[in-house]
Amino acid sequence: MSKTQHIGATLKAGLWQRIPPFRLVLGLCPSLAITTSAENGLGMGLALAFVVTLSNGIISSLRNVIPGKVRIASYIVIIATLVSIVEIVMKAFFFPLSEQLGIYIPLIVVNCIVLGRAEGFASKNPPLISMADGISIGVGYTLSLTLIGSIRELLGSGSWFGLRVFGESFEPLAFLILAPGAFITIGILLGLQNLFSRWRGEKFIQS
Amino acid sequence: MSEIVRMVVVLSLIAGICSAVLTMANQGLGPRIEQQTDLYVRGPALERLFNKPATEVLPNKVTIETDEATIPVFFSRDGETISTLAIEAIGAGGYGGDLKLMVGIDLTTGRQIGIEVVQHSETPGLGARIEEVTFRRQWQDLPTDAPVALASDGGNIDGISGATSTSRAAVSGTNTVLTFLRNHNDDILQQIAQREEQI
After folding, report:
1. pLDDT band at A47 (very low <50, low <70, confident <90, very high)
2. β-sheet bridge partners, residue B104
3. 3-class secondary structure, A131
């Protein structure tokens, strides 16, 4: 496979083959906790996309410098710095959103997606393709979270991105906004994706 | 270079560079974060105290350095004279941690306008009722020269039932403000005058 083809395939992989959190079953904790509205999902997804793209790039460029025994410590330091930058920028420009997301922004540091991509992809591949992987995983995560958030917000409170969609007579399914609603929504979406994949005869890719 | 030295050097270098970057980000965006915190955290409280949009009140801010803390003071003027002050205070000893309060002082009458809760982490249904108007209304028109106290301590503030420590924290926060006002009244006016001159 030529280099551009390889990058193209990596870019596409994050959108279906290993889309988090469905295929790459990682990072479920924030996916369950913050997707009470589409806006929160989008904000969280973009924050993670930024972190995972840059951390993949940096870690991949340093992959021959960092000694194997302290690699996880080094990754955590790099990721923590990026997350702190996201937090500072978010506080400075999107204060209400940062209040909403609260502790889940600092918790991106220990998000398994970021660490998983650093350890599983960036530490073995050159920087450019690692960043492509980061972008694709980040965009995939943003799309998934926005979708989960949209479903929960639409049915759970009758609005989308804060705009009222249904009329006054709509009785929202309030449980979708609560924790069980998150499990049910993600479960149904995951089931649908599996069903579709099986119907198309796709092979499941786990790495 | 031996393995162990390499490990130490690389990890220290990474940590050093990361802290430098973070320091820069923090320095660069610090003032903006402060501004946003003012707008979204203190803004609503100020709006209710001054009866004016927050964007109008927020620029009128001075900070007074005391021995223990730096206290933000907001003011508004009625014509030439400074009519009202809002002084921030920490109400120590709430059930879920310290309360952050804003006490409004009417300088022309020498009475309190009321208190507003800026931040708290009290129990919903009990201590969190501190946000309710019925509790906070009791501060209206109290004199600024006498300390406030709960009814159970011989004062005239009815505490929230089931949330004595929260009520005490609110009262002690107010008293901090009143003492501060007594000791630093000239200081505040001077700072405000200085600020006006700069503009």
Report:
1. very high
2. B86, B114
3. helix
User: Which long-range contacts link B128-137 to residues 24+ away (Cβ below 8 Å)?
Assistant: B129/B160, B129/B163, B130/B99, B130/B160, B130/B163, B130/B166, B130/B167, B130/B170, B135/B160, B135/B167, B135/B170
β-pair partners for B115: B103
CA distances from A170 to A167, A173, A182 (A): 6, 9, 21
Q: Which domain holds residue B109?
A: 46-198
Select the residue from A82, A95, A98 to test the B interface by mutation, using most B Cβ atoms within 10 A.
A95
CA distance A123 to A142: 23
- Please state, as a whole number, how many other Cβ atoms lie within 10 Å of the Cβ of residue A183: 12
Q: Of the candidates A64, A101, A104, A105, which has an alpha carbon nearest to the alpha carbon of residue A83?
A: A105
| Pairing state between β B61-65 and B70-78 | antiparallel
Separation CA A33–CA B155 (nearest Å): 45
Mutation target to probe the B interface, by most B beta carbons within 10 A, among A62, A63, A70, A97 is: A70
Asked, for residue B23, whether it belongs to a domain, the answer is: no
pLDDT tens sequence across B163-181: 888 888 888 888 888 888 8
pLDDT in tens, A130-169: 999 999 999 999 999 999 999 999 888 888 888 888 777 7
Do residue A77 and residue B25 have CB atoms under 8 angstroms apart?
Answer: no
Query: For residue range B62-115, what is the model confidence (pLDDT) as tens digits?
Result: 888 777 778 888 888 777 777 788 888 888 888 888 888 888 888 888 888 888
Number of domains in chain B: 1
CB contact under 8 A, A92 and B32: yes
Closest by Cα among A9, A11, A5, A40 to A135: A11
Structure tokens at B188: 């505040």
Cα B49 from Cα B85, distance rounded (Å): 9
